[in-house]
Design brief:
The complex is a heterodimer of chains A (208) and B (177).
Chain A: E1 2-7, E2 10-15, H1 17-27, H2 31-53, H3 56-73, H4 83-101, H5 110-113, H6 124-141, H7 146-157, H8 162-169, H9 173-191
Antiparallel strand pairs in A: 1-2
Helix pairs in contact in A: 1-2, 2-3, 2-4, 3-4, 4-8, 7-9, 8-9
Chain B: H1 3-13, H2 20-31, H3 34-51, H4 62-74, H5 86-112, H6 125-134, E1 139-140, E2 143-144
Antiparallel strand pairs in B: 1-2
Classes of the chains: A mainly alpha (208), B mainly alpha (177).
């Protein structure tokens, strides 16, 4: 359970005593404490990776790598900071590295998306329509530069606040809002089928 | 707030990322400006597409496999707790040890059991004495004794067969016979 604390006008989630104790156990090498941490965060980590990479297997590999890196470096982790933003930062950085290595077209898991039907909706036509929408969204997201894609998926799909995203991606709140503004405009243009030039341009921090 | 500023802020407004005061004035402008309202609808449609990804489901077994790989990589010799308490573990190991010990002792006993010595007529002095006394040759009747081909050693007095002395002690006191 996280508790929210107002820091310099921002609302930031801080770790509670239970999680701090758990992290301290992991720092002493307790495997069961680490498994407990994994149980708590593995789903979110996996979905962050999946929404950035659009491939089930790659998302699982990235999540595994993120947890392995966390365990191997947890001795250096400051328990006063948020564990989850540190974990997600490692995950996002791994995703961005992977996206830069692999061309966009190769990351689209078209076959895998066929199995994404919502089990609550029985109508096959409706399921197919939803699957088609998701497929299209993934294809459009794959056309965005990694830093825009990271901010857009973290905010709109995974539901993190701009403050949390600034911790995860390691930049200022103003930069996050600038990237978010730019990413939503780009995505909307792609959504409408407009030919837009998507360049990984420099950040501009303004009044956002 | 004018149209230009509204169109510039719509990407943040659509996700609820504008400060309350700016969001309020933007909403006021959009309510009375059909072109800006149309732009807002288009932003909302594209954002709805993004939100549709929230309903995805991972393939079955994804998280079990994820955890198993991390477990194997980080703790190759450590088994996760499976609800078995440590006294049960100790008893289980002790039982295995006892079974192993029993098998070992039993096997050792079987291997160390002395095999029955072959019956050698020549090593039985009383029989030998009888044979020598009655048939001083190589054959006794129709039975051949190859060990009798060599001359036998002399029989030691302590190996000779005597009837044991029998001392009769009468019960109930001495009695003359």
């Amino acid at each position: 359970m996280m508790r929210s604390v107002a820091v310099e006008g921002r609302t930031v989630k801080m770790p509670d005593a239970g999680e701090v104790a758990l992290i301290r156990k992991v720092q002493l090498g307790d495997p069961d404490a680490f498994r407990e941490l994994m149980d708590k965060y593995q789903r979110r980590t996996y979905w962050i990776a999946f929404h950035m990479l659009n491939n089930y297997d790659t998302a699982r590999e990235i999540s595994q790598e993120a947890f392995i890196r966390v365990f191997r470096n947890i001795a250096r982790f400051d328990v006063k900071k948020n564990f989850y933003t540190w974990l997600y930062q490692i995950c996002v950085n791994l995703c961005i590295d992977r996206m830069r290595k692999v061309s966009h077209g190769k990351t689209v898991d078209i076959d895998g998306l066929g199995g994404l039907a919502d089990p609550g909706r029985k109508d096959p036509a409706d399921q197919e329509e939803r699957a088609e929408t998701r497929r299209r969204v993934h294809q459009l997201l794959d056309r965005l530069p990694p830093k825009y894609k990271a901010v857009l998926t973290l905010r709109d799909i995974n539901g993190f606040s701009c403050e949390e995203i600034s911790e995860i991606v390691g930049c200022t709140n103003a930069t996050v809002r600038w990237r978010l503004h730019r990413a939503r405009r780009l995505f909307r243009a792609l959504w409408e089928g407009k030919g837009v030039e998507v360049a990984d341009d420099a950040d501009v921090s303004d009044s956002f | 707030m004018g149209c230009e500023e509204t169109l510039d802020l719509l990407p943040l407004f659509v996700g609820g990322d504008l400060p309350r005061d700016k969001a309020g004035s933007l909403a006021g402008h959009v309510a009375g400006c059909p072109p800006c309202a149309r732009e807002l609808i288009l932003y909302r449609e594209s954002r709805a597409g993004l939100l549709s990804l929230r309903a995805e489901e991972a393939p079955e077994g994804t998280f079990g496999a994820l955890r198993a790989v991390v477990d194997r990589e980080l703790f190759p010799r450590h088994r996760p707790r499976s609800g078995v308490s440590w006294p049960d573990e100790v008893l289980r190991h002790a039982a295995v040890l006892m079974v192993g010990l029993a098998i070992g002792v039993g096997g050792y006993g079987v291997l160390r059991r002395p095999s029955p010595a072959p019956v050698a007529t020549a090593e039985r002095p009383s029989v030998r004495a009888e044979l020598v006394g009655s048939v001083p040759g190589r054959a006794v009747g129709r039975v051949f004794f190859p060990e009798l081909s060599a001359p036998l050693p002399p029989i030691a007095p302590e190996h000779r067969f005597y009837l044991p002395k029998v001392d009769v002690i009468p019960a109930g006191g001495e009695r003359d016979f």
